[in-house]
Design a protein that fits this description.
InterPro entries: AlkZ-rel. By secondary structure, this protein is α+β, with helices and mostly antiparallel strands. Helix content is 48%, strand content 12%. The protein has eight helices and six strands. The strands form two sheets. The chain has a three-stranded antiparallel sheet. The protein has a three-stranded antiparallel sheet with strand order 4-6-5. α4 packs across α6. The longest helix is centred in the first third of the chain and has 16 residues.
């Protein structure tokens, strides 16, 4: 069972794909289900040691080892950490879907990110104002863009919240490797 950052990192490398928080619909192991830390909230409030650890690991592992671990969403929408060689050779070719095949809202949100990468909050506000969508519709479009591998969260450790970039800006080599010849 996992108790440390290094153990969590090795878990990702060993399992190739693991979700962050467990899901009954997922066939992947999860950091959450394999972490042996207290789940009880401290008396003074805040997150439990288990929540704090898993939340930290899902962010810090890909920030610390960007050449070894990818953070994104797998089909079904679960957040996952994926060993980079597996991502490059198996996951990306199987899961990538061109943005032009997504619904119009997802395409428009992608254009916002392509033209001006940003944090979730400002992107949501812009989409709601300009596209007359709801928060739920925006969140669904953002999830579709992650699952289809058109956008990715920045691994910059200076950024404390989710900052979205087009996939090709972070992993151009992988995108080019799997593009059909023109």
């Amino acid at each position: 069972m996992l108790k440390t950052f290094d153990q969590a990192y090795q878990f990702v490398l060993t399992h190739k794909v693991c979700t962050v928080f467990g899901s009954q619909c997922s066939s992947y192991p999860s950091l959450w289900d394999n972490t042996d830390l207290p789940e009880a909230k401290p008396k003074e409030g805040g997150w439990s040691p288990k929540v704090k650890a898993v939340w930290d690991w899902k962010t810090r592992i890909p920030q610390t080892y960007p050449e070894s671990v990818f953070y994104g969403k797998v089909p079904g929408g679960d957040a996952a950490l994926i060993e980079m060689q597996h991502f490059r050779e198996v996951h990306y070719p199987a899961a990538f879907q061109p943005v032009c095949e997504l619904d119009s809202l997802a395409q428009e949100v992608y254009q916002f990110i392509r033209l001006e990468p940003d944090y979730t909050g400002p992107l949501r506000k812009r989409a709601i104002e300009r596209l007359a969508c709801t928060k739920s519709q925006f969140d669904t479009a953002l999830k579709k863009l992650q699952v289809s591998l058109n956008i990715v969260r920045s691994n910059d450790p200076k950024l404390k919240n989710d900052f979205w970039l087009p996939m090709h800006e972070v992993h151009l080599d992988i995108v080019q490797q799997h593009q059909p010849p023109s």
